Structures are given as C-alpha cells and as structure tokens.
Fold:
Amino acid sequence: MGASSGKKNILSEKILNASNAFIRTSVSDSSLTFVSITRVELSDDLSNSKLYWDTFDATKRGDSKKAIEGITGKLRTYLSKLLKMRHVPTITFIYDSQYDEEKKIEDLLGEEAKKGKGVS
Structure:
C-alpha cells in the first residue's frame, strides 16, 4: 500500500525545500557552499528517498560528495523535527548529471553547426 501521488509530491517538495535550507543555514562545511538539492524521489511507501544534488563548482564534486553524504544523519534529524515526522525516509544522495549532459549536447550541437550540419 503506497501513499497517494499528491501526498508523495507534497512531501517531496517539502523535503527538497527543507534540505536546501538545511544546507544553506545549518552546515558550515565549505564543500557544500555551492551544492543544491535539485529533486527528490520518494518510494511509494515513503520509506526511502533519493535526493539528487548538483554543484556549481564541478572541480569540488568529489569533496562535495563526501561532505553531503556526511550530513545524512543530521539532515534526517532536521527533517524529522521540521516536518514533524516520526519516520523520516532513508536518504540516498545521487549526483544529478543533468546539467553536465545538457552541456555535452550543446557542445555537440555547436560542433555540428560549425561543420554546417546544424539543426534547422
């Protein structure tokens, strides 16, 4: 038995906003300065979550990954108190490569346009 999609979407949005607020206001690790949670996926039973993250500073991605995985417990505690949840979903952080993929596509299209094979 799973949660309704409306409840799931609302909770995902709350976790997204609260997680970004937590990173901005409660964490002093400089590795997380440019990190943002880009989206949240919840399991149907709301017991597991995947938090997709990205950073504006790609050169620090490795440090950011270690730092963000290190705040998992503190973030769950924060979410529990803020959202008044008895059972906070487990959190798995996943790097969101969406912007890297977009950049690759733009570069490929740019190269094709230079060769005269651009999309019309």
Remarks:
- The first strand starts at residue 35 and ends at 42.
- The mean pLDDT is 90.
- DSSP finds four helices and three strands in the chain.
- The radius of gyration is 18 Å.
